[in-house]
Design brief:
The chain is mainly alpha-helical and 185 residues long. Helices cover 39% and strands 8% of the residues. It has five helices and three strands.
Amino acid sequence: VRWTGLLQEKLGDTHEIIEEGLRARTTDFEDDDPEFPGRNGLAYLRPCLESHNPLDLVILWLGTNDLKSRFNRTPEDVGAGLKKNVELIHSVSKDFQGKSTKILLISPPLVIETHLGSGTQFAGAEAKSKELGLVYEQISKNFGCAFLDLAPIVHPGEFDGVHLEPKSHPIVADRMFEVVSKLCP
């Protein structure tokens, strides 16, 4: 059902998708919510890369959780966290020929606050999420990364305004396949 499994099916046996997604992960800081320990993406990234090296491609899809109102982060702050991840990937991860691993930066779908209800932890996130695409695109240009903005392609589900509904995963897999098959033929 998830885009990662669907992408694996599309790519076939010549590629291996290693899924490392985790709910509530942030770009570069620890969430103070005791329900979500160990969600600092940057802290997790190095051991993850080292355990899976060599890698032809890393798909980096982070940022929505940074927009929780209690963190008071701007789109530029989120971008700064993302840059740290990109720099770490470039310094640690290598492909099978010993070159830096390719990176595909994903700008997440918009947060839809009308689906969140009152008292949401994502108050103010919708406006900020509309700016992430431009911030991420600039980072991708600065660091030579591939880029895909999901905001114009899919929307979060009405059930929470943040996460994708099952019907969106095939759409994401199709777009990812277009990009990944060019980056890793």
